[in-house]
Amino acid sequence: MDPKKNSKIAERNYEVEDYKRNDQMSKGLAETHEQVSDSYMDGDNEEELSE
After folding, report:
1. Among 19, 23, 42, 48, whose CB has the most other CB atoms within 10 angstroms?
2. Using one digit for the tens of pLDDT, what is the confidence trace for 5-35?
3. Above 70 in pLDDT, residue 36?
4. How far is CA 44 from CA 2, 13, 14, 24, 41, in A?
5. Contact 24, 5 (CB under 8 A)
6. Phi and psi dihedrals of 45, rounded to 5?
């Protein structure tokens, strides 16, 4: 893969419009954003401390 293309992909962040877009990157970002958001709202983001 082209290094310039890799850099462009790595710089991509979630945008609200990703839910409406049909490309693989947008779909992946929208799905990941939804999963993180759901976990956060459910309170599933607690760290387990091991002693």
Report:
1. 19
2. 777 777 889 999 999 999 999 999 999 999 9
3. yes
4. 38, 23, 21, 27, 8
5. no
6. -100, 15
Q: CB-based contacts of 12: which residues, under 8 Å, 6+ apart?
A: 25, 29
pLDDT at site 47:
65
Give dist(CA 20, CA 27) in Å, integer.
Answer: 8
Q: Which two tokens stand for residue 48?
A: 């387990």
Q: Three-state DSSP class for 50?
A: coil
What is the DSSP track for 1-41? Answer: --HHHHHHHHT----GGGGT--SHHHHHHHHHHHHHHHHHH
Q: Are 14 and 33 in contact (CB under 8 A)?
A: yes
SS3 44: coil
